[in-house]
Amino acid sequence: MLGDWLKPGNTELLIELVLVLGVSLVAGVLVEKLLSRYFSSLFTGRRKKEYMALAKALRGTPTTLLILVGLDIYLSSIELPATLKPVVEKLIITIIIIQASIFLSNIAAGLLRIYTEKGRGARSTTTLFLHLAKLVILVLGFLILLEAMGVSLTPILTTLGIAGLAVALALQDTLSNLFSGLYIAISGQLRVGDYVKLDTGVEGFIADIGWRNTVIRTPYGSTIVVPNSRLASAVVTNYHYPDRNFIVPVEVGVSYDSDLEKVERVTVEVAESVMREVPGGVPGHKPYVRYVSFGDYSIVLRVYLAAQGFPYNLLVVHEFIKRLHKRFKEEGIEIPFPITTVRLTSSWQGVEDRSKILEEAVTMDA
Hints:
With 366 residues, this protein is of the alpha+beta class.
């Protein structure tokens, strides 16, 4: 009888229980190590991440399950009070279901993160998806637990349906952000790691898309939190979609006396060297030049470079301007100063020689 453990001097059952738990613990640790080694040999090379996710989820699970199995076997071999036996059985089943739910939720979150990174070019998935995956599995585990305890699910689901309507009305803003976050994450047009610019002027890398907010990390190290509903309705420029490489236009002005054929050739040569040699440039990109307008003091041309995403474009433009300025000096190509010529004409009454008109050309540096 289990009650015999409480009797003074009777320690036989207690010793047996401790031995069973000790053996189960050792067996669980050994099984966990063997499984870890097996999966380590199974998932090698590029699949190493799957092993890490599985090992993290397995941590403690085999040990817990074997302890519960050993305890169940031992308790079934001794005589328990009729009122205590169902309680012990339900307790063991409850712990097993909870442990299995936690294990499966961790596995789902880990694999989701890994395969999302593979499918999106080494980008991490959002915490919104990870939390939803865990929540779905934990809710299913809770429902299975209730069913195992003999609780009818129909009244509970009916009550939850009625209560859900009231909750939805009370949490309109929260649910709006939640569904906006789901829409943003599922559409794939805004992804973790993308560099975006909002119509409000906010720009930076998307660090995470949560259930309520999207976190944007600016190039200056600060963090901006934007509600998902506002982000979903904003005009957003994504510089990393559909490709991280994007065109970087740079405007240059040359003198009206310049040989435009020579200017184009020299500019393209400098741009090609920047694409090949500067980190963040796109070697396969062929830079090209287009003359766009006759300016007030120069002929304006636009050079189209390419960069491998932000913030590489800053370095590409930086190096291009330095090299182009040096090369133009070597080739005798003038980049004129901004100037404005104003012609003033005036005449005064009372002057005998009305044919005299003051005419000046005033040149001012802009």
